[in-house]
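Bit of a strange request maybe. I'm writing a small parser for structure token strings and I need a real example to test against, not something I typed by hand. Could someone generate the tokens for this chain?
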Amino acid sequence: MQVTKKAIVLLSGGIDSSTTLAITKDLGFSVFALTFNYGQIHHAELQSAKMMARQIGVAQHLIFKLDLANLVSSSLTGDSEIPKMRSMGNILSEIPSTYVPGRNLVFLSIALSWAESIGSYDIFIGANSIDYSGYPDCRPEFIDAFQKCANLATKVGIEGKNVAIHAPLISMSKGEIIKKGVELGIDFSLSHSCYDPDSNGRACGVCDSCTLRKKGFKEAGVKDPTDYFA
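Reply from user aminoacidic:
Good idea to test on real output. This should exercise your parser:
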């Protein structure tokens, strides 16, 4: 009897991670979704991650408590104002205050530990280097370097059972990602992108992430289901 391969998917509840989750499921993996409660100032994305995991279907969804807010300086953990009303040129060329130092490095390291523990050799991350907010840990160079490190740092790597770090969206535009998600049946009204939602979880409409989200739906020719308050 063929055993279904297991995969860890980093799931934030946004467009990219949700599409990555659906792609992984479509490839036939038994999916183990990993979401981080890392000290971000709002938890709307955690609720979206739960809903996406239910909609797409996973073997297990783990929300991992990790208080990076005590260690890092980022506007996502409340150290400064969320940038808003920035031009697309600035969004695509500058590293903003929403950058969380070492976030993907830490997240992937924990995913690697879980993967080795459950016998998984595949980790999926929704990193994107086209329509993104300038984060250095979303680049192909970082993904490649982490994969090399993963196979030097693990028992399975030393034994020749290499772990693969998959970033299927790395070279896709936000519009292409949304089209792929729609093709795979994702209900994007369940997803959350905003960096500064109101108390009801409605998106601000003017932070970098909302700007990229709006741009993506427009490019995809798909109606944006987001409830914006601005």
